[in-house]
Amino acid sequence: MITKLDLIDKRLLFELDNNSRESISKLSKKLRVNRNVLKFIINRLIKREIIRDFVTLIRPPSLGFIPYKFSFKLQNQTK
Fold first, then answer.
1. Is 33 helix (H, G, I), strand (E, B) or coil?
2. Which runs of consecutive H residues, i.e. helices, occur in the chain?
3. Whole-prediction pTM value?
4. Could you read off the pLDDT of 2-22 as tens digits, one per residue?
5. Most buried residue, 9, 21, 22, 25, by CB count within 10 Å?
6. pLDDT band, very low/low/confident/very high, at 75 (cuts 50, 70, 90)
7. Spatial distance between the Cα atoms of 15 and 29, rounded to a whole number of angstroms
8. End-to-end CA distance of the chain
């Protein structure tokens, strides 16, 4: 299921990606959102499993992104 994120959700994820241990008070000031609203948003993102742990592991498929892994084998490389 792809989850739609509003601007506050995206900004919150950005801030948590920079520092996932930031206090709710500081985050609420940065985002200009009431602390209780911010707690609600964080709990909603946890419930939807967009935030799984506070080391900020984002599930790309839940945002509509498909992760790819590439492997390259290089031959005859000179320095």
1. coil
2. 7-18, 24-31, 35-47
3. 0.66
4. 788 999 999 999 998 888 889
5. 9
6. confident
7. 12
8. 47
